[in-house]
Amino acid sequence: MTGTPTRVLVLNSGSSSVKYQLLDMADGSRLAVGLVERIGEETSRLVHTPLQGGGGVKRETAGPIADHEAALKAVAEELAADGLGLDSPELAAIGHRVVHGGLRFTAPTVVDDEVLAEIERLVPVAPLHNPANLTGLRTAMSLRPDLPQVAVFDTAFHTTMPESAARYAIDVATADEHRIRRYGFHGTSHAYVSRETAKLLGRTPEEVNVIVLHLGNGASASAVAGGRCVDTSMGLTPLEGLVMGTRSGDIDPAVTFHLKRVAGMSADEIDVLLNKKSGLVGLCGDNDMREIRRRVDEGDPAAALAFDIYIHRLKKYIGAYYAVLGRVDAVVFTAGVGENAAPVREAAIAGLEELGLAVDADLNAVRSDEARIISPDYARVAVAVVPTDEELEIARQSFALVQGSEEVNA
């Protein structure tokens, strides 16, 4: 092989799963995608799809996959079967999604023992995510110790928030001792979508102010001024902010004290209630927006109320971030609900005409995988739909860092 290696393997290691994509940064194309799920169970399986040369035909391997090391070895075998193995000289780096980087990690970082130790120190503020991310990192490092392993942090994009937005109004010494502040999440998506929105408007990120609404089962909003995040809805954890599929979002903190004193619930029970049994599922028993809309259309009052509460919170954040930014060039919807649920977009913008916002019904009804504007020409502020691509963003950041490192070390 001649020339610079251009491929990046992106790994997203969850507690019982590994999602992966292999991309070629020469043109941004995907060479393979896959998922290992239910790791450690008898029903675990690997679903692998080669996209270049493989015709996009899925291959599924069933059977027990004991742990993340076995999972990554199985992924390596599937890639090798397509001539895309981890030993390929065309592989430039492995990029890892890491949920929490605290205040130290403000950019993608080549992982070494010191970085691993700091990610581990952050486990108390990300107990569900960082341990799985660490397992993926350590396993990949053992398989390819000579290859740059790059951590891309969900929190990094939000580290530009001013202290006035990031601080909670509690005792400073207590907050600092226990790292209590607003970190924000979904940062990789917010970074990608805000930049792609500027491109859609024909401008540079530095020229535009954007409100990004990342609406999936987890949901978050951000205010992005000139390419820098100045506020975001998630906080110390992903529980704060918008109404989500199973999370409550914003809630009076005293609710937790009330549940402990009056209902006799433990801290763990309250944690489960607010994170897994609240939001849309707590309000109406469903967290799938398609099913909720079907029920709304059939006249189901519980589904209608859940939808109205969801939209009310969404509007509050649009208005709040409009005030934070002062001038808004675009409000953009992304992620599963944001990209596909036209009724959500229509309802969230309805009544905001005085802010220069409007949705064109015909444009909003179009289903497309392309970034597009759905506001009428007369609207002062663009309303857009921009599909997110966190894997491409992780690959871009990882590749750019490795290229830069090679130039520095040359």
UniProtKB/TrEMBL annotation:
Binding site for Mg(2+): N12, E390
Catalytic activity: acetate + ATP = acetyl phosphate + ADP
EC assignment: 2.7.2.1
Active-site residues per Swiss-Prot or TrEMBL entry: D154 (proton donor/acceptor)
Co-factor note (free text): Mg(2+). Can also accept Mn(2+).
Residue positions binding ATP: K19, H214, L215, G216, N217, G218, D288, M289, R290, G336, V337, G338, E339, N340
Top-level taxon in the UniProt lineage: Bacteria
Record key words, sorted: ATP-binding, Cytoplasm, Kinase, Magnesium, Metal-binding, Nucleotide-binding, Transferase
Alphabetized InterPro entries for the sequence: Ac/propionate_kinase, Aliphatic_acid_kin_short-chain, Aliphatic_acid_kinase_CS, ATPase_NBD
Residues flagged as site, Transition state stabilizer: H186, R247
Main location: cytoplasm
Pathway as given in its UniProt record: Metabolic intermediate biosynthesis; acetyl-CoA biosynthesis; acetyl-CoA from acetate: step 1/2
One family name in Pfam for this protein: Acetate_kinase
Required co-factors: Mg(2+); Mn(2+)
Binding site for substrate: R97
Alphabetized GO MF terms: acetate kinase activity
EC class: transferase
Subcellular location: Cytoplasm
NCBIfam families cross-referenced by the UniProt entry: ackA
Family: Belongs to the acetokinase family.
Function of the protein: Catalyzes the formation of acetyl phosphate from acetate and ATP. Can also catalyze the reverse reaction.
Subunit structure as annotated in this protein's UniProt entry: Homodimer.
Protein name: Acetate kinase
Provenance organism: Streptomyces narbonensis
